[in-house]
């Protein structure tokens, strides 16, 4: 595409909506072009439509290349969609035929409606509305969006301080409940159990005049497995560590059987610091307790310290162990593999949370990640609030 050629969209038919201001033209064209892409088979999420409208308003409509690349950057998510995007771009912006049909720009009046609800079925959908019979205007398109829903999908590395605080509010709803296991303690049950509950049977008999009309029983109970969180706070994890440490606080403050550690050049236990109810005070206390924040990475040596001091002595035995790391390790991969094998022998399950897994084309090729992968039960994403919500489901299985 030539840089200097102007974009000439198909002229819009005359009518009441043709008097729309020039400021609203990029938004109207963006909505119409996204509709064409969806009819062409491309999956364009609502947040991408809003980003495209903003990008189009920024680059303007004077030159073809900026308009083309604004759409490529915001609307195309898969390489296989580029060809369909190019055809739709030619048909829409250059007025060429796509098959037998020429698509025209239908002027719309755009109304931006902020949806305060967090209903996932309603938030983020384009909802067309009919014309207003009183003012005689044309079709009005309401673009509805939910800030909370958009934030759930946003990468932690791109969050501003205000967005990070809002993301922590969304994390507070996540319950990191571990899988359940059989308890040694017997609990009262209503059905017939494995052992009679003599005390409860006698108490009920006294209420019935000494006759044991109803017999009570005891049976083996259940309790949640311990959850152990090992969070990498090295320099490569800096964009995500500030959000993940807040997730650790939510997990520790919300349940009694959660332990939290940081991994870097050394191992640091931060369970006590993160137990405070005040989120900011807890994160600040944890940051002060970690001397190797944003330093190098020696995952193998840190895991060895955990296994020798805590893990194999009981803390990780039968627990769900979650490692939050990108897998970049400057230590010996053989040491990391050895310690992961030790951990896997005593833990109920080992879950690895890698924020880079959401990157298109990602493969676990980093030395540390490749060494640890054979001993991992689940490799999941950890780059957004939505991915942490999915992690809670994985842990609960």
Short description:
By secondary structure, this protein is an alpha/beta fold. It contains 14 helices and twelve strands.
Features:
single chain, alpha/beta, 3 domains
Number of strand elements: 12
Q: List SSEs in N-to-C order.
A: HHHHEEEHHEEHEEHEEHHHEHEHEH
| Largest sheet properties | 6 strands, mixed
CATH topology of the largest domain: Rossmann fold
Computed CA radius of gyration, to the nearest angstrom: 29 Å
> Taking strands numbered 1, 2, ... along the chain, how are they ordered across the largest sheet?
9-8-7-10-11-12
Shape: globular
Poorly predicted segments: 1-6, 8-23, 96-108, 116-141
> What is the CATH class of the largest domain?
Alpha Beta
**Portion in strands:** 15-25%
CATH architecture of the largest domain: 3-Layer(aba) Sandwich
Task: Identify the CATH homologous superfamily of the largest domain.
Answer: von Willebrand factor, type A domain
Task: Report the total helices.
Answer: 14
Distance between the termini: 51 Å
Helix content: 40-55%
3D structure, described in words:
The chain has 397 residues and is α/β, with parallel strands linked by helices. The chain folds into three domains: 16-153, no CATH class; 169-177 and 225-396, Rossmann fold; 182-223, no CATH class. It has 14 helices and twelve strands. The strands form three sheets. The protein has a six-stranded mixed sheet. Strands 1-3-2 form a three-stranded mixed sheet. The chain has a three-stranded antiparallel sheet with strand order 4-6-5. Strand 7 (227-232), helix 8 and strand 8 form a beta-alpha-beta unit. The longest helix has 17 residues, at 238-254. It is globular. 32% of the residues are buried. Residues 1-6, 8-23, 96-108 and 116-141 have low confidence and may be disordered.
